[in-house]
C-alpha cells in the first residue's frame, strides 16, 4: 500500500520525510522517493527499493525546509526508479506524489502525447504533473491549477503538489484516499496516515473527499473542488509521541470514547499492527467499521492486518468486501491477489492482479505478484501462465 509524507516549516525536511516514510513501511511498498526544493530547484531522489536504500542515496549536504515523500506499490508500470514517485513535469517545476488510481489515465496520457509532451514513466501520476504545470501559468495560482486539473480526473487520489515557483506552500487534495494535515508551531505536516505525524504534532485535520488544501508553514486553508471555502476543526492531541507506544497513547487521548472518530480509531489499529499486536488492531478496525460500515480504507487495513497475522481466509473475505467498492483501490486488488496466491491459488491470484487493466499494466502487476509470492517462504513459487486473464475482482 502506498504512503505519503509532506513537510513545510523550519526543520531540515529530509529527515522528517524519511522518518515519516519509515513509519509507513508496515503498509507494504516496492519503491520510495522524495523531492525537496534546494537552491530554487527540485532535487529528487528515488529508488526501486526500501526506505533505507532511499536514505543511503540522499545527498547529506542538501538542506531544505519543504518537501514531499512517497512509498509506492506498483499499479501503473513496474517497480522501477523511473516509475517511483515523485513525478515531475518536463521543466522540473512541479513534483507530485499520489495515492490511488486515475481511471482515465490512458486518455489523459494520450492527450499529453498529442500535445507534444514526452512521458518518461508508465504511471498515471506523471500525467497529473504535466497537466498541473500547464494550468499554473500567468495569474493562475497553484491551488487553482490543481483544482482545474482534478475536474478532469476520474478515480481516487490523495496527492501533494510541490512547485518551485511557489516554494512556500504545498497543495493537497483528497478523493477516496486518506490525507491528514498535522499542525505544528510554524510548521505543517501532510501524510496519508496519522502514524507518520504523531511524533511531531499535537493537532491533526482530516481532509474530506473532493477537498483541496493549501498548506503553508503558518497554517492551511481548505476548499471544495468547486472553490467553496470549508471550515475544519482540528483534533487536539494532548502529548508528544516519540515512538509507537507513545503514539498509541496520543491517539487514545485524541477523541472521546463516547464520540469516537473513525479516522483515529483506524489509526490506532494501524499503530497496533506496527507493534505486531494484530489481534488488538483488528478489534480497533472492527470498532471503526461500526461507525462507518464498509468504509473501504478500514476494510483494506483490516484485511492487511489479518494477512499479517496469517489469518488468510479472513484476510481474503475482508479484502473482497473492500473490492466491492468502485473504482477498486489498486492496493485492495494487490493485497487480495497476494492473499489468494499465498493460499496456493495462483491462477486465480494472477487473474485478479491483471483484471480490467491494459495488457502491459496487467503483465506488470502479475510479474510483481509473482515476485512477492516468491519472496514468501511459506509458499511455493507460482507456475507461470501465458498471460494475465481478464475478469473482475
What's this, in brief?
With 393 residues, the chain is an alpha+beta fold. The chain is built from 13 helices and 15 strands.
Q: What would your notes on this structure say?
A:
The chain is globular. The protein contains 13 helices and 15 strands. It is α+β, with helices and mostly antiparallel strands and 393 residues long. The strands form 2 sheets. An 8-stranded antiparallel sheet has the order 3-2-4-1-10-9-11-15, with helices on one face. It has a 7-stranded antiparallel sheet with strand order 5-6-7-8-12-13-14, with helices on one face. The two termini are 17 Å apart. The chain folds into 2 domains: 3-236, Glutamine Phosphoribosylpyrophosphate, subunit 1, domain 1 (4-Layer Sandwich), CATH 3.60.20; 255-375, Tetratricopeptide repeat domain (Serine Threonine Protein Phosphatase 5, Tetratricopeptide repeat). Mean pLDDT is 85; it is low at 238-242 and 377-393. 37% of the residues lie in helices and 20% in strands. It has helices at residues 13-23, 51-57, 105-114, 125-135, 142-150, 244-253, 262-274, 278-291, 296-308, 312-322, 330-342, 346-353, 359-375; strands at residues 3-8, 31-38, 41-47, 66-72, 87-88, 94-99, 157-163, 170-175, 180-183, 188-191, 203-206, 211-216, 219-224, 229-230, 235-236.
Amino acid at each position: 500500500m502506498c504512503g505519503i509524507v509532506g513537510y513545510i516549516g523550519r526543520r531540515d525536511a529530509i529527515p522528517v520525510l524519511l522518518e515519516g516514510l519509515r513509519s509507513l513501511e508496515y503498509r507494504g511498498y516496492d519503491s520510495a522517493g522524495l523531492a525537496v526544493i534546494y537552491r530554487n530547484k527540485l532535487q529528487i531522489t528515488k529508488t526501486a527499493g526500501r526506505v533505507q536504500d532511499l536514505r543511503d542515496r540522499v545527498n547529506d549536504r542538501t538542506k531544505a525546509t519543504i518537501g514531499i515523500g512517497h512509498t509506492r506499490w506498483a499499479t501503473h508500470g513496474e517497480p522501477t526508479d523511473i516509475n517511483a514517485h515523485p513525478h515531475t513535469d518536463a521543466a522540473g517545476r512541479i513534483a507530485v506524489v499520489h495515492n490511488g488510481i486515475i481511471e482515465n489515465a490512458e486518455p489523459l496520457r494520450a492527450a499529453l502525447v498529442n500535445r507534444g509532451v514526452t512521458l518518461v514513466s508508465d504511471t498515471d501520476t506523471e500525467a497529473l504533473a504535466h497537466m498541473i504545470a500547464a494550468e499554473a501559468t500567468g495569474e493562475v495560482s497553484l491551488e487553482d491549477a490543481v483544482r482545474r486539473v482534478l475536474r478532469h480526473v476520474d478515480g481516487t487520489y490523495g496527492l501533494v503538489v510541490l512547485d518551485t515557483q511557489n516554494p512556500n506552500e504545498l497543495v493537497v487534495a483528497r478523493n477516496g484516499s486518506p490525507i491528514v494535515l498535522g499542525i505544528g508551531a510554524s510548521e505543517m505536516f501532510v501524510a496519508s496516515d496519522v502514524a507518520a505525524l504523531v511524533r511531531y504534532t499535537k493537532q491533526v485535520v482530516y481532509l474530506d473527499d473532493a477537498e483541496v488544501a493549501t498548506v503553508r508553514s503558518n497554517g492551511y486553508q481548505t476548499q471544495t473542488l468547486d472553490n467553496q471555502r470549508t471550515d475544519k476543526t482540528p483534533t487536539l492531541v494532548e502529548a508528544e509521541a516519540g515512538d509507537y507506544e507513545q503514539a498509541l497513547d496520543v491517539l487514545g487521548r485524541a477523541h472521546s470514547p463516547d464520540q469516537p472518530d473513525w479516522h483515529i480509531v483506524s489509526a490506532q489499529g494501524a499503530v497496533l499492527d506496527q507493534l505486531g499486536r494484530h489481534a488488538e488492531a483488528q478489534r480497533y478496525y472492527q470498532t471503526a467499521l461500526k461507525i462507518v460500515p464498509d468504509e473501504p480504507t478500514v476494510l483494506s487495513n483490516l484485511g492487511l492486518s489479518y494477512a499479517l497475522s496469517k489469518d488468510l481466509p479472513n484476510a481474503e473475505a475482508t479484502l473482497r468486501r473492500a473490492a466491492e467498492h468502485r473504482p477498486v483501490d489498486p492496493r485492495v486488488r494487490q493485497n487480495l491477489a497476494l492473499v489468494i496466491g499465498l493460499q496456493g491459488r495462483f491462477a486465480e491470484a494472477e487473474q485478479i492482479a491483471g483484471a480490467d487493466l491494459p495488457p502491459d499494466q496487467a503483465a506488470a502487476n502479475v510479474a510483481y505478484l509473482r515476485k512477492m509470492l516468491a519472496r514468501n517462504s511459506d509458499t511455493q513459487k507460482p507456475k507461470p501462465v501465458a498471460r494475465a486473464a481478464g475478469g473482475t475482482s
